[in-house]
């Protein structure tokens, strides 16, 4: 038995019969860097990138333009007169704030169409109620 233990130690095997390795048990090198200075497959490399400061820049009138576009779209289907007016007011406030994108223009056009369409539907419903 003593001879078997010495043979295992000389062959590089511990008492449990598994070979010893130079790597830690979790599979990563002890110093946190890949061996031989080269990146090895399976190791995750960490880079220290600087995070940008704050939120990305948004134009002050962009939220008003988005609100105008949403109200203009909805005004085509329901509450055309009310939401159309809100869309036109939001679009004009976005343009006063200096926003020149297409959202404000589209919101204003859809608001006008919503007002005209809502008025025509109301007039048509009133006219049909008297027939």
Task: Indicate the topology.
Elements: H1 2-10, H2 62-75, H3 80-96, H4 102-129
Helix pairs in contact: 2-3, 2-4, 3-4
What's the short story on this structure?
The protein has about 130 residues and is mainly alpha-helical. The chain has helices at about 1-10, 60-75, 80-95, 100-130.
Mean pLDDT: 77
Structural class: mainly alpha
Query: Helicity range of the residues?
Result: 40-55%
Q: How many DSSP E strands?
A: 0
Through-space gap between termini? 113 Å
Count, helices: 4
Shape: elongated
Flag low-confidence runs: none
Reading the helices and strands in chain order gives: HHHH
How much of the polypeptide forms β-strand, as a percent range?
A: under 5%
Query: Main beta sheet: strand number and arrangement?
Result: none
Q: Over all CA atoms, what is the radius of gyration?
A: 36 Å
Report on this model:
The structure is a single chain. This protein has 131 residues and is mainly α. Helix content is 52%, strand content 0%. It is built from four helices and no strands. It has helices spanning 2-10, 62-75, 80-96, 102-129. α2 runs antiparallel to α3 (80-96), α2 runs parallel beside α4 and α3 (80-96) runs antiparallel to α4. The N and C termini lie far apart (113 Å). The model has no long low-confidence stretch (mean pLDDT 77).
């Amino acid at each position: 038995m003593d001879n078997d233990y010495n043979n295992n130690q000389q062959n590089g095997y511990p008492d449990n019969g598994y070979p010893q390795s130079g790597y830690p048990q979790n599979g990563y090198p002890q110093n946190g860097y890949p061996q031989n200075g080269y990146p090895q497959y399976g190791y995750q490399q960490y880079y220290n990138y600087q995070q940008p400061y704050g939120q990305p820049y948004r134009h002050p009138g962009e939220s008003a333009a988005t609100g105008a576009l949403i109200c203009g779209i909805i005004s085509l289907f329901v509450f055309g007169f009310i939401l159309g007016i809100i869309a036109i007011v939001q679009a004009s406030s976005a343009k006063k704030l200096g926003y020149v994108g297409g959202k404000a223009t589209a919101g204003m056009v859809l608001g006008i169409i919503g007002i005209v369409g809502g008025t025509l539907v109301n007039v048509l419903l009133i006219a049909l109620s008297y027939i």
